[in-house]
Amino acid sequence: MIEAVIFYFFGAVLLGAAIGVIASRNPVHSAMFLVLSFFTSAFIWLLLEAEFLAIVLVLVYVGAVMVLFLFVVMMLDVAPDRLQGGFTAYAPQALVIVALVVAMLGVVLWAQPGQLSMLEAPPRAPPDASNTEALGAVLYTEYVYAFELAAVLLLVAIVAAIVLTMRKRPGLKAQDVPAQLAVRREERVRLVRMKPERDE
User: Helices (H), strands (E): how many in the chain?
Assistant: First the structure.
């Protein structure tokens, strides 16, 4: 009973944080709401005895990705006035996506026979069970092709980000590796002979 109360409490906090992400007009506030949603998701993973996923969620998303998001948001210095019209402009598309997600959740939770009820607690894992080992076994056997496809997509995204940053624009300082390797000391360093100075 206490686990159900804790689950619904963190679920309510997660839902409120998710609403705060899209409803806040300040980008920094939206990023902080997203950090809160990541932390509450990690607590829910802990309730499901998935400690590895909870720690990875905190370390990777909160410790790395959100720091990068905040850095980019603060460097861009986006004016809140420019974001006020974006919430209502994309509302129809957002409602369609929300309806699809709710429909998929309904299929998973209620339409399939033999599934656990929302009010039932999942079965306890044995004390010597390792969710990290189970996750690795499933990831590299049943979903190995999906894992490799995700790795290729991430590689393409990295290359695309580098290409976008290296596009021609005024003031761009590109690196010329062959020119740097062909540099001689006489072209970069000038030795100056000075007389020693004495303190009077």
Answer: 10, 0
